Structure formats: structure tokens, C-alpha cells
Amino acid sequence: MTYRVGIINVTGFAGMEAARLLWQHPEARITSITGRSLAGRRLGEAFPHLAVYGDTMITAEIEGSVDVVMSALPTAESASACVPYVRAGVKVIDIAADFRLKTAEAFETWMGKTHPAPELLAEATYGLPELNRAAIAASKLVANPGCYPAAAILALAPAVAAGVIGDQIVVDAKSGISGAGRGSGGSFGYSEVNEDVSAYKVGNHNHQPEIAQELGALREAPEPKVTFVPHLVPMTRGIHATCYAPLARDVSQAEVRELYREFYRDCPFTRVVDAPPHTKHTLGNNMCLVHPVVDARNGMLVAIGVLDNLVKGAAGQAIENMNLMLGIDQKAGLDLPAVYP
Amino acid sequence: MTYRVGIINVTGFAGMEAARLLWQHPEARITSITGRSLAGRRLGEAFPHLAVYGDTMITAEIEGSVDVVMSALPTAESASACVPYVRAGVKVIDIAADFRLKTAEAFETWMGKTHPAPELLAEATYGLPELNRAAIAASKLVANPGCYPAAAILALAPAVAAGVIGDQIVVDAKSGISGAGRGSGGSFGYSEVNEDVSAYKVGNHNHQPEIAQELGALREAPEPKVTFVPHLVPMTRGIHATCYAPLARDVSQAEVRELYREFYRDCPFTRVVDAPPHTKHTLGNNMCLVHPVVDARNGMLVAIGVLDNLVKGAAGQAIENMNLMLGIDQKAGLDLPAVYP
Amino acid sequence: MTYRVGIINVTGFAGMEAARLLWQHPEARITSITGRSLAGRRLGEAFPHLAVYGDTMITAEIEGSVDVVMSALPTAESASACVPYVRAGVKVIDIAADFRLKTAEAFETWMGKTHPAPELLAEATYGLPELNRAAIAASKLVANPGCYPAAAILALAPAVAAGVIGDQIVVDAKSGISGAGRGSGGSFGYSEVNEDVSAYKVGNHNHQPEIAQELGALREAPEPKVTFVPHLVPMTRGIHATCYAPLARDVSQAEVRELYREFYRDCPFTRVVDAPPHTKHTLGNNMCLVHPVVDARNGMLVAIGVLDNLVKGAAGQAIENMNLMLGIDQKAGLDLPAVYP
Amino acid sequence: MTYRVGIINVTGFAGMEAARLLWQHPEARITSITGRSLAGRRLGEAFPHLAVYGDTMITAEIEGSVDVVMSALPTAESASACVPYVRAGVKVIDIAADFRLKTAEAFETWMGKTHPAPELLAEATYGLPELNRAAIAASKLVANPGCYPAAAILALAPAVAAGVIGDQIVVDAKSGISGAGRGSGGSFGYSEVNEDVSAYKVGNHNHQPEIAQELGALREAPEPKVTFVPHLVPMTRGIHATCYAPLARDVSQAEVRELYREFYRDCPFTRVVDAPPHTKHTLGNNMCLVHPVVDARNGMLVAIGVLDNLVKGAAGQAIENMNLMLGIDQKAGLDLPAVYP
After folding, report:
1. Together in a domain, A193 and A243
2. Hey, of B167, B171, B195, which one would you mutate to test binding to chain C, going by the most C CBs within 10 A of its CB?
3. D259 shares a domain with D140
4. Are D210 and D216 in contact, with CB atoms under 8 Å apart?
5. What's the structural domain count of chain C?
6. CA distance D43 to chain B (A)
7. pLDDT by residue (tens digit) across D278-317?
8. A192-202 average pLDDT score
9. For residue B181, what pLDDT is reported?
10. CB distance D235–B193 less than 8 Å?
């Protein structure tokens, strides 16, 4: 059997990446795709890199029955689009930020908008399989993690869960420009972004509460303090999250390494590595590489997580969640090398 | 049945790209790989982007029986390595330049070295399926085209074959830096190459005779004159060949377009497009995009060909040739979207 | 004495580059700058790289008396802004394309707009000092060359003037993205442009007639045919023009080299070099590097010109023209190393 | 009077940048330059971007009398070369790391080599004018700061001096590739570095003790703990240091901002800015932009410093130190806009 997938808003970078990856999926295929500005056009004509899709049309609404819906609409627009599918019992994965925070209040505080479907928040599962595999498999509505949180949480989770680190966490993240989304060229023109590094939304980015919430769920104590500073670096894809936290107890490099390996033993897409990882080693695939280092001199844990923001940070993660929700192999369609160099 | 493939010298960019692409091949798999400096190491450890290969070891020599051998050794080293397999009846694809030129004399003139196996030259088939599909399918030894010639020949072949253009051809090619090969960092350091364009081997590059030879084979007249100037541009992958030739007769844009479409009607990996193509629309896949333009004002044909130098210009082309030699679907393992953005 | 310079529209890349370079000029200084959207703001606040300018304000109109006006307005808007200054006897340098073509008809054909001040065309001098030094020095209105034409004309002029090449010229140009102008991010977003090469306006760019006109002026025969294809490459600054033309007579590499050196003997900003030049060797300075190669095998001249599109291709050239018009040292303020790496 | 400057090892990136900047210096000029591998060649021929230097030759040893020597030799080679000049009373600026750490023991611990001239350590002044202007002016031997320390110390100094932050400091630095030096292409080839971010020497880089030492000198308490993690990002020039430290007392954003402005009031090359600064706004000039942010929610100070690693992080800083040592205007030759875009 081949599952039928609908993608709402295929025209953003996350949506088109889902289309790219689903092409190779052995048990699912796209049967309907929407995109407002490009409705009525052929997918492969609008986006020449997807020419393999031949006559597949972009429509205004999802057409025909589907088993799974992925929504790649902007945050605060996505929830409303998801509602009818959730109601109808279709499995829904929201790639936007609408169902990630647990409360409508938190959403309002950080997004500056009223939540469009607060009644569904209790049903939503945070879609990071390394933490929530069973819950995802049982869920009808999965909130796909943000790209920064995916990297930061995977870098820190084993240490938080084991109580190795204390409360004052720093997440310094470096992102490729595709994280800003398609059509963001007006603010991110090549001439301005090239040969430049800059921080933005210092201590104030809406991915911060998502990181704190999920790390907090790993332990008894209240949510840790997380200072989060995202940076843009001149590349297209990739996130490098460098996380820092004071050690809560004496721990050796070997112990931390073992603790991390144990934590991720059954996780096909998070690998603990012994040298500083390169974002480029995950370009185009669903891998997250994690590297913890004990800075014994200063009593600090440095934990690095790298991934492709459009794959493990968005569309690949959505497919991994879909696989779990459908009860098929978690790795289906995703067990791929990265593109290098 | 799954065909067994051996790769000689997996450690260069073309060799590792063959490994990346073969991972997804439905009917063939790598059973042995060699690499001199890295013999004894795990493939996925030496090259983290290939971690999916798990315990596959790099060895000094091909081990076990194989159905196909691909050699990615340097030019003038590759032929000798191929000889025993050709003799043993194994299908061989040489990704190096050893069997591309038809005579040992031409090889010596342009490569500055004695040909290591001139006795095999007559058996070799030039591996561009758009021109030689049947011959490739019947061949035991295929010479995989150079990256520049693949782009230039595909841009020009329909016009040459139809006698639309005259003799004085210009091929102005722009290449990403991966064309210089792995380990070329000494000459192509990031700080020097970034934010720079330059030409090299002006009118003197050894891909020039390959272009002239194959275009010459498409018509009765002698080989055309080809002025070939390669340039390096600051990107990793991609070739953009812009070709210019005086029109030999009056011809309209519509006529040329139709002539090109007809020529490539049954070619799954060369697509004629109606707007200037972007190299990035082929990143990571086996597509060549071709765009002919009649500059009526000046009596000139401008024909553009773009491709990924490591895929249609090297490893993907090798797999396409392998498919034909094995009598399986020409598209097997290669029918993929490009990676974008 | 210090000359007073006004810049109309300092807010584009060419205008702000003029401000950058004039800062170091020993005999001229900016006394007034305009910029529509940013009028009322401090220059160094709007553009932090120009913070050295301290309290200099951007105003809506040129304020106070000036000796020279440079206009960096868009084409077809610039001429009208120049008229009053020309009438008032102020020396004017138009960095836009309004006064480059000799006739209002040519302007209308190529720009698709009516010329705003056709009555001034006869007074305008084409501002390429390598060809027109004396005329520029005597002129009140100088049309600053386009960035592509500057590179192409300087690469080809000696050969055309000496009758070494024939009529069918190809100019294949590669440009950094800053050539598209500030605020062009909507079409040239980082994620789309990075790792990409593409051609545009194939055979149809409005710099083509400018190249043909100026090369035609160097000889008795009618204007040569010029096929011009511009390409965008992923870097910020730099133009690399690779020009091709059939040799009109037998000529050796040594002879061509000598002919080029002789032609540019007294030109401080065009240097004939013996190896393929790198755009990066001119980054930020006013140099044009020229490299002619005889491809004797094919009877073709390949002539390369490289420069920084914002300096010798725009603002630096404007200052060089200003120096000549003011009768001061042609090199004043421009005799600088390039920024490397 | 024009001071005579000798540069030892002009052939590295820092040395050639010193040559680039000194070209424009109003009161000093290069009279002798050395470079081992290129001795006997013209400077402008070896490095085409320095062609303005005409016939200046690279020699094996400094020739003639000089007033100032800058050494850009590798660390642990530089000190020995400096000794004779210091002895002879020539003013010496060491751009290498030989005289930065105060003790031979620290040098040995972090560099893994015996100090070549420990007897001079007591005479050396740490050359960061924002902290040590008077001492530099009085010194005969100045240790030019490392590129990372320059950015980190300038970001943190006002907060440390005012006792606003506590002891556990994190410095997360992002550097362009030129920091790795010329001839580093073997490890930093374009194809590998492009589209990649990675950390290196996590918690173990030899710039860490330099940061801790200089921050420690600003207060009574012992040296703070500094966790330093450098990262390479795909650009040529620029350092972005993002520094984090727990607040030691309640402090408002306005108070911190004022405290920073006050600290740098008389410093011509460090500017406190109100928005996250861009490395590109300092490209090619001697500016450091500093931006402190109070993350009140988490009780953390985030302090950002950006600069051009080859200018304020190396050669420009050396010239600024030279100016102070010579008693001339601190800004001489350095009061320049940045190159943008």
C-alpha cells in the first residue's frame, strides 16, 4: 500500500523540500499539493529542480482523499488550515510553530498573535522522535520542531536528563540563510549577506521558549534558563548550535560521551561523534550530529548539534514523524547519504 | 538480482559521489571499494556524509567478484587498473580521461604522457548516452565523458548534427571548484578562491580535443574548430557552458528549439528549457539543462548547457552508462530531484 | 583648494562607493549628498561602513554650491536631474546610462523609454579615459561607462584599433551580484543566488550597443557585430569579461602582447598582464587587468578584462573622469592597492 | 618626516595586509620587506593586488635602517627575529603570539614550545590601545593582540572593569577563513569549507589564556574563567565574537549601554552600536563594533564584538600601535570607510 500525502503550501522552502524527499519514499507519495500564489501551475515548472514530478499540479486546496497532511504555512496561519483534517481523522504534521508551545498564553506572548486553534493544543505532540517516539506514533497531530530547537535540544537533552548540567544554559546558533524562508530576498539580498556574520533577535527569538519547554520536560526541576542567540552565516543550508552549560557535578569526557551514546542508542538519525562535526556532513539528509565536550578547566559542558535546517530541522523531520504515525519503518525514505562536497 | 559494483579510488570527489548515488540504486550495490591512502578504514568514518555505509571497508584492491568496475583514478593511472577487468570480461567504466580520445597520439599530445593501454582504445565507447546509447549498451569498456565536454557537447550536438552552425565554435565554461578534485586545496584555498573569477589554460585545456572529436563525429565534415576557455567561479558544484557558433544558415528561434527538442526526445537526462537555466537546478542530480538562443542580429547561435559536474559530469553519468551496459532501466537510481535551494 | 562634490542618490551601490572612495581624495570632498528614501538621516548611520562621515546628512536635494555633480540615479531618471547642473556650468558625471549612446533613437530602442534630455547628447563625452582622455578633460558632461562595457572595451580596444580582429565578436561576461544594485534582494536572494551560475538577457542586454558603438569608433569600418551574454556568479563584486574574435590576420602572441602594452602605455589604471587575471586582484580599487591570448590553432583572439564593477566599472571611473575634468592628477584618490584576500 | 617601516614576512596574510594599509599612511612608508620563499621577487608581481608598489623588492633580510619593525612571522619564530631590533632600539611590533602571554610558562603550556626570548617578556606591552594606550606609547616592544582576543576583550572589557558580570564567561567566536593564514589551503580547500560551519579546538585554543589574562588585568579579582570556542564560517574576512556572562548585579540595558559608551569615549576605533553589528561593516577597515545586550529574563549579559581579523585583528592594529609608539596621530592612515557591499 502507498500512503497518500497532501502538502499545504509547497511553495516555501520547507514545503518544496518535503516534495523533494517524498519523491524517494517507498511507501508514500504526494497526491495533492497547494500553494496560493502558484495555484494552477505545474510543480516541476514552477520549481525546475522538481521537474521529475511531471504533470503534478499545484492547486488552491487539497484535492481528493489523503492519509497524511503536512502544513508548511506560515506560523499563525497554519493551525486553522490543520483543523479540518484533524477533525476528519487525517494524520496531520504541522511544520509551522502553531502547536509547539503547550499553552495559548505562551504562543501569544512569543508570537504576538492570538492562537488560531487553542482547543487542539492538548492533542498535539511535540515531534522530536528522539524524545517522544511512542507519543508521536500514537498521535493524530504532531508539532514539528523548529530548526534551531531541533539542533539545540538534541545537543543538550542527554545532559539535562542525566542532571549533569545546571540551569544557566547558553545556545549560540549559526544558521544558513534558507532558514529565513523563500521570498526573504528583500531582506537577505546576496550582496548584503555574503561575507557577513550577524546576530539577530538577541535573547528574544521565539524559538527560545520551545527549547526551554522541551528541556524542562526532561527533568523534575523547573524549566532551565536558556539564553538563545541566533546568527546568520553566509551559506544556504545548515545549523550549528553550540550550547554551553555549567556542569552540575564532576563528570569526565568519557562518562559524558557514554551517556550521550546510550541516550541515542536506538535513534537512527542522531549520531554522537568524536570530533567537532561539520554542518556540511548533513547537507540534504536527515542526520543530526552531536558532539559533547567537557571543558574541565572551566567546569563547563560544551555540546554541539548540527543538522540541515530544511531536513532534520523541517521536512525530513516531518517525514520521520509521518513514518512513526503510519507505523512504518522510521527510516523509510530518509536513510540517505549527505551531499558532499 | 542485485549487481555487484566495485569502485577503484573511492576517495576522490567522483568516486565518493558514485558511492553516494549507488546507495539509492535499486538493482546494484557496492561490494568493494578501494582507496590507496585510506585503505583499512571504514568508508563512513573516512567520509562522514557516507555514514549510512556502516561497516563497509576501504581496501587496497577490489575484493571478491564484481559485475561492474568504475575507476576514478587519475588520468594515465586509470587505464592500467582497468586492463585486467576488461580482459576478465567485467564491465568497466573509466571515469578518468584515459579512453576518451580515439588515438594514443592524441592522448600523448594533450596529456603529455604515453598511453598506458593503447591496445584497448579501439574497444572503448564514448559514454554519452544522448549520442551513443546503443554502442554503450553493447560495450565492455566505456569512457565516461569529461565534465566540461558533457555540458558543451550536449549544448551543441543538435545544432552540429543539423548543420545549423558553422565551424568556428567558442565554448566558454564556468565551473565550480570541486572540478579541481579533492586534495586540491593547496592551490584552491578558500580565501583565495572565494569572491574571485578567473580563467585558466586559455585555449589549451585537454578537454578541448574531446569536445571537437565528439562534435566532429556528428557530421560528415572534418572536426570543427573549438576555442575552449574554462573559468573557475566561487561555488562548489556546477558547470555552465555557454557556447557560441556562427549560424550556417537562416534559422528561427522556433526552428532551433524544435530541432533541439526532437534531438533529445528520448533522452531522460537532457531537457531543453525555454529560459536561461541555473546550475543550481541540477545540484546533486543527473540532469543536463540545455537552452539554445538564436542571436539573429549577429547571425550567432548561443547554446547553453548546465549540469552538476560530479553527477551528469562524472559519477551519475557513470551509473547511467552502467545501467545501459547491464540492460536495466537507464534511469535506475538516477531519477531524482535536485537539491534546492 | 579642495573641490566640492555633490552626489545625487548616494543610496545605491554606485553612489555609496563614490562616497567611500572620495573620503580618501586629497583634493576633493563631498559637500552634499542626496537620497530620496533616506533624506534626513546621517550618512554614517544609514550605512555603517561610512561612519567616518560623522554628521554628514543625506538631503532631498543638492545643497550649497558644488564644483562637480555625480549622478547615480537609475537610468532614464538621471538625465533630467543632470540638466540644471549642466546648464549652470557645473561639471557633471552621469553614472547612469542616459548619455552613453550617441542618439536618442538608440536609447529608446534599447532602454524602452524616451530620452529625457536628447538636446544634451551632443555635448556628452563617453568617459573611458583610455580612449578619450583629452575629450573628457575638455567636457562638461561625461557619460560614465557601464560596468560590462568598461571591461569588454578595455579587453578589445587595442585589437580593434590595430585591425587585428574581424567583425564577429563574442563577449561572455561574468558579474558579481552587486551589479544588480542595492535593493535587488527580492530577485537576488542569497539562498537562490548562492552556489549558482546563470545567464540572463542572452544577446539582448542594453550594454551590447554601448560596446559595439565604442569599438566601432576605433576604426574606419562600420560597427562590429557583438554577441554579448552576461552571467551572474555567486560573488559580490567583480566582472570578468572573456572576449573572443576571429583573427583578421596572422599575428603572434608576442606581437599582440606588445600591441596591447603600447596601447595602454600611459594609462595608469589598465595593466596588461601575462597570466589569466583574477577579479579579486582588483577588489576595491580602480584597476582593470587585461590579458590577450592568441589561440593560433583556431585563428581566434581571446581577450580578457577584469575589474571591480563598483570601482573601475562605476564610482572609481567617475572619480577618474572628475580628476581629468578638474585638470588635477588623473590618479588622485585612486592610486590604491586592492583588498586581498 | 616620513618614518621608515620594515616588515618581516610580508608574504602571509597579516604581512601583506600591513603593506596594503601602509601604502596610504601619510607619515610612514615601507622601506624594506622580507619573505623567505619569495625573496628576490617584486612585491607587486608576487601579489598583484599590491602592484602599486612597483619595483619594491622582497628581500631575505631587512635592508637599511628602519624606525619600526613589524614581524608577521609564525608564532615561536617571531621572537628571535625581533630580538636584534629591540636591542638596537628600533620600535618593534610583533604580530605573532610570542609576547602576548606574560610568562614563559604560559607560553610553553599553550603553544607547546619553549619561548625563544623569555628575557624580553617583561619589556613587552600588550598592544590593545583601548586598554593600554599610554603604556603602548612608552613601549619599545608591543605584542599585537590575537584576532579573537581583540574582538572578545573589546566586547567584554567595560563590563568586566565595572564589575557588572561574574566569572563564568563564554566566548563563542565565528571567524572567516583568512584567519587560518595563507597557504592553509591544504586544510581549508574551497570545496570543503564552502557551505560549512564547524567548531575547532573546543575549549582548547591558545587564544583562551590571552583573553583571560587581559580581562583579569581589568579587575582586582583573579582571572575569570573563559570557555572559548572558535568556529570557521564560509567567508574570507571577519570575526564575530558573541560573549556571554552571568550578570553580577542588577543592571539595565540603558546603564550598560552608557557604561560601554563611557569606556570607549576616546577610542577612535571602537564604536558602541545599538543594533547587532555586521562583520561586513568593518571589512577592510580598523573598526571594532561593540554591542552589549542585557538578557534580563535570564540574568545574562550578551556582548558582541565584530572586526576584520586582518585589520583591527592584525595589521591595522599593528599600525595603530605604531602610531602611538611614534607619537603621531593614532588614526593616521587608518581613518577609512569599510568596503561595502
Report:
1. yes
2. B195
3. no
4. no
5. 2
6. 17
7. 999 999 999 999 999 999 999 999 999 999 999 999 999 9
8. 97
9. 86
10. no
pLDDT, tens digit (0-9, with 9 covering 90-100), for C292-310: 999 999 999 999 999 999 9
CA distances from D307 to D146, D173, D241, D294, D317 (A): 12, 11, 9, 21, 11
Residue of B nearest to C177 (CA): B195
In a shared domain, residues D170 and D318: no
Tell me: do D156 and D290 sit in the same domain.
yes
The verdict on D161 and D302 lying in the same domain is yes
B–D: how many Cβ contacts below 8 A? Answer: 73
Whether residues A190 and C195 touch (CB distance < 8 A) is answered with: no
The answer to whether the CB atoms of D194 and B184 lie below 8 A apart is: no
**Nearest C-alpha of chain B: how many angstroms from A341?**
7
Contact B49 A280 (CB under 8 A): yes
Say if residue D185's pLDDT is above 70. Answer: no
**C107, C186: one domain:** no
Q: Is B190 helix (H, G, I), strand (E, B) or coil?
A: helix
Does the pLDDT of residue A185 top 70, yes or no? Answer: no
What percent of chain C shows pLDDT beyond 90?
95
Q: pLDDT (tens digit, 9 = 90+) per residue, C67-77? A: 999 999 999 99
Distance CA B226, CA C302 (A): 12
Residue C253 sits in a domain whose CATH number is 3.30.360.10
Q: Which residue of B has its CA nearest to D238?
A: B191
Distance in angstroms (rounded) separating the CA atoms of residues A128 and A136: 8
Average pLDDT over residues B254-277: 98
Q: Tell me: do C182 and C279 sit in the same domain.
A: yes
Chain C partners of B293 at a C-beta cutoff of 8 Å? 202-203
Q: Which helix (H) or strand (E) holds C79?
A: helix C78-87
Do the domain assignments include residue A335?
Answer: no
Classify strands A270-272 and A288-295 as parallel, antiparallel or unpaired. parallel
Which pairs from B102-110 meet CB under 8 Å and 24+ separation? B102/B213, B106/B209, B106/B213, B109/B209, B110/B206, B110/B208, B110/B209
Query: Which of left, alpha, beta for C333 (phi over 0: left; psi -120 to 50: alpha)?
Result: left
Is the domain of C183 the same as that of C300?
yes
Q: Which residues of C touch D182 (CB under 8 A)?
A: 341
CATH number at residue A129: 3.40.50.720
Which residue range forms the structural domain that includes residue B282?
148-308
The model's confidence at residue C183, banded by pLDDT at 50, 70 and 90, is confident
* Interface residues on C facing A, Cβ-Cβ cutoff 8 A: 13, 176-178, 180, 182-195, 234-236
Residue C181 confidence class, pLDDT cut points 50, 70, 90: confident
In angstroms, the separation between the Cα of residue B236 and the nearest Cα of chain C is 7
Query: Which of C147, C243, C267, C288 is the catalytic position?
Result: C147
For the stretch A134-176, pLDDT in tens is 999 999 999 999 999 999 999 999 999 999 999 999 999 999 9
With 80 as the cut, is the pLDDT of residue B184 above it? no
Band (pLDDT 50/70/90 cuts) for residue D221 is confident
Q: Does any domain span residue B192?
A: yes
Interchain CB contacts (distance < 8 Å): A and C: 73
Q: What is the 3-state secondary structure (H, E, C) of A23-44?
A: CCCCCEEEEEEECCCCCCCEHH
Q: From CA C128, how far away is CA C125, in angstroms rounded? A: 9
Name the grid cell of D143: 605584542
Q: Are D240 and D306 in contact (CB under 8 A)?
A: yes
pLDDT digit string, tens, across residues C205-217: 999 999 999 999 9
Contact across the interface for B233 and C236, Cβ inside 8 Å:
no
In a domain, C266, yes or no: yes
The pLDDT value recorded for residue B182 is: 84
Separation in Å, CA of B194 to nearest CA in chain D: 7
Assigned domain for B110 exists = yes
Average pLDDT, chain B: 96
- With CB atoms and an 8 Å threshold, state whether C51 touches D271: yes
Output the CA torsion C123→C126→C129→C131 (10° steps). Answer: -110
